[in-house]
Amino acid sequence: MVTRSLLEESILADIRPTQEERDHVCGIATRLLGAIAASGKAEGMVVGSIARHTWVRGDRDLDVFMLFDADLSREALESDGLGLARKIAGTFTDIFHEKYAEHPYISAKIDDVDVDLVPCYAVESAACIKSAVDRTPFHTRYITDKINGLIDDVLLLKRFTKSGGIYGSDQMTEGFSGYLCELLILHYGGFIPLLKAASEWKPQTIIDPENHTAKEFTEPLVMIDPVDPRRNVAAAVSLDRMVAFVELARGYLEEPSIHFFSLPDQHAITREELLALLADRGTTLYAVTFPTPPYIEEVIVPQLKRSVSAIAEHLERNGFVVHHAHYLMQPERCHFLFELLVADLPKIRTHVGPPVWNRVNAEKFREKHIVSSLPGPYIRNGHYEMEVFREFTNARAMLSSEKLLQVSLGKHVRQSLALGWQVDEGADCWHSEFESFIAAFFRRGSPLIRVRRKILDL
To answer: What is the β-pairing status of strands 378-380 and 61-69?
Structure first.
């Protein structure tokens, strides 16, 4: 029998769904399943945390899958499935719209519950899936058969990772999915046993509950899917998120606190505070703001990550030293922030040419630059060198130039930037919609550091 601390019992009392909430959500699920059955076109199935009773109070995300005959063509599944989902959603609410993953589905708001109606194939086993979503019903069956007695441990883990800012397998978070949390609890036999094991994790930790892995994986954390030996359930977990979990596990085992389960604070910063902060740091802040490309987060966020790195490298190559850079995707606008240690440069710079013993290239370099108003070409360390004028002496001018579109941006990010972008400097980077993002930009700290600061009331 699991023995819990008074702290853990108090947390569970706050995060277990109430009976009223269970009745409400399950009632909606029952009505949806009845509507799917009445259509005669598909079999309905509730999947995800609600089906497994592992949802945290208030997280009312109801996933209902509509299982169609496996002989149906892909085109017919999309058209018939989307049509049925739209019809069923329309009988319950006026608030619904299409979303797209591997194929389209309907997302609806029924009362106060977020509902996804997802068409998939009713296949015999996970080895026979025809699309990624076909695997999900097998996840639900696997967990449901084994989770009894460990549901509370899953709830503690979900709140623990959410508090640490590492819950969610989306592209922005790169953390722990709900299914991964459930598998970890099952494998280690509880919340505390998991933390004890995780406190010793190192990169390339491999967990294979069914001992059936069918390929090699290179991700930092590997959890072989019990229903699919060729899939890593933890593929989304980045090295930093994995190590953050290790740090949190060690911290909680050493000094348990309610702050390990409190949701992250949303910090704020005023324009005046930002102005004073930058003056104190002696750095220069730039913001590049542009329309959000009209695609889902899974497509755009990796492009934002790549683009902000490419722009930072572009700044560095031109002599502007970047201290920190980050990105944010909002529904209407995206935001790049760059904190620079150097934002203004002299007009001249050194241009290093080929070594003199590389005769062909050295002679081409010498002849190309023989007429110059600046020193050079001259020889230093066996190479030709010369002084040249910089194209940009100010970082803002470079960020505002059309040459920004020539760096290695993500495809859709480039298309969006091509429509126009805004460059702000210093305190002018402050916008109300990005306030918490800017505040967090200057309050970087590991999850355990944030907990320790709360304990010390800093």
So the answer is: unpaired
Q: Whole-number mean pLDDT of the chain?
A: 94
CATH class of 271-344+393-442: alpha beta
**pLDDT per residue as tens digits for the range 346-373:** 999 999 999 999 999 999 999 888 888 8
Decide: pTM greater than 0.85: yes
CA–CA–CA angle 394, 395, 398 (5° rounding): 95
Under CATH, to which class is 16-146 assigned? alpha beta
Of the candidates 420, 344, 352, the residue with the CA atom closest to the CA atom of residue 384: 352
For residue 369, the model assigns a pLDDT of: 87
Residues of the chain with CATH 3.30.70.590: 271-344+393-442
Q: What is the rounded average pLDDT of the residues 29-58?
A: 95
Could you give the CA distance from residue 124 to residue 130 in angstroms, rounded to a whole number?
A: 11
The residue assigned the tokens 């542009």 is 290
Please report the DSSP string for 235-291 in residue order: TT--HHHHHHHHHHHHHHHHS--GGGSSPPP-----HHHHHHHHHHHT-EEEEEEEE
* Torsion sign across C-alpha atoms 398, 404, 410, 413: positive
Q: How many whole angstroms separate alpha carbon 327 and alpha carbon 164?
A: 20
32-42 mean pLDDT: 95
Across the range 323-332, mean pLDDT stands at: 95
pLDDT tier at 1 (50, 70, 90 boundaries)? low
User: Would the pLDDT of 130 be above 90?
Assistant: no
Task: Report helix, strand or coil for 3.
Answer: coil
The residues of the chain that CATH labels 3.30.460.10 are 16-146
The CA distances from residue 217 to 139, 209, 234, 239, 365, in Å, are 20, 15, 10, 14, 47
Contacts of 265 (CB under 8 A, 6+ apart): none
C-alpha dihedral sign at 309, 311, 316, 320: negative
Distance (Å, rounded) from C-alpha 191 to C-alpha 202?
A: 19
- Count of residues making up the chain: 458
Structure tokens, 405: 């579109």
Q: Which CATH class is domain 151-260?
A: mainly alpha
For the chain, residues classed under CATH 1.10.1410.30 are: 151-260
Amino acid at residue number 426: G
CB atoms within 10 A of CB 200: 10
